[in-house]
Structures are given as C-alpha cells and as structure tokens.
Write a structure and sequence with these properties.
- A three-stranded antiparallel β-sheet has the order 1-3-2. A three-stranded antiparallel β-sheet has the order 4-6-5.
- The chain is α+β, with helices and mostly antiparallel strands and 183 residues long.
Length: 183
Amino acid sequence: MDEIKYAAEALLFAAGEAVTTAKLAAALGVSEEEAAEAVSSLMEEYDSCKRGVSIIEIDGGYQLCSRKDYYKYIRELMGEQRNQALSNAAMETLAIIAYKQPITRARIEYIRGVNSDGCVNRLYERGLIEEAGRLDAPGRPILYVTTRQFLRCFGLKSPDELPPLPQDAAAEDKPEDKADGEG
C-alpha cells in the first residue's frame, strides 16, 4: 500500500492541478477505491504532522498544495503576488455566476442592472469562469460556469458547498422575470 500511496503523491505533485480519482486509479493500475484510500491516507499523514503541504478535494478530484498555515512564509519568499484583488463589481458578477450557473451574459446584466462585459472578461482571463456551451435561444448566447480555479481560490470542493443565499435574494430572481428564456 505504501508504494501506491507514494506513487499517488508523486502523481499529484507532477500534475500541478486537481486529478480525479478515476485518473489516479488508471495511472496507478488500481481500483478507484484503492486510489481514494491511498489519497485519504496521505491526507491524514499530512494533517497529523502539520506538513508544509496538504491535499485538498476539488470538484471530484484531489490536488497537492501548500498548507494555509504557512502562507506567511511563502509570501516572504515569493513576495506579494501580482494578482490584484477582484473589484466589487467583479466579485458581484462572480457570485451571480456561481449561484446561477450556467448563465448568460445577458442574464448577468439583467440581475446586476449594468453592463458586465468587462467583469465577465476579467473573470474569464483569470480562469475563474469558463464557457460551458451555448443556450438554445436566438443568438445562441454563451453560457458561463465557474472553474476548478474558482473552487481552489475559495476553498470549495464543489459549487454545492456555496453558502445558501438569504431568502430575499433567492426570491428576487423568479422564473417569470427571466429576460432571455433561461430556466
């Protein structure tokens, strides 16, 4: 089991992004249950020793990353990252996409009440949202969804872990108010 466990560790390190249990199992030549058990064992080992790295679950996969507890040391070595914080408008747009996905730009603009081209483009460039096809409606507008990068940035395993919306916010967007026929 140790060889499988450490081979899984090497695969997660080499991948640099989330890897599904199915892909790990295929690469290791074991069942998905054995692959998941190996990763779970690594996670426990890292957590019990407060190692500098940890394994996080993202959208049905696993990713090796640095432990949050040691961010101050990483920042000292690497300096402040060049990524600037998102503007309030971009955060608002991202929240709409996260809670209403898949969603069109027109729907985002309807909810926000303002043009959102710049925000959507910025979120797309940062890899926080991606295209997920087109709506079967006139003009075939692009549908946007959040990405694994979004999940990683916000420490979520899946979009299902988003906190619930307050009742008044959820009630604001009734089906009969849909501007572009989206359901």
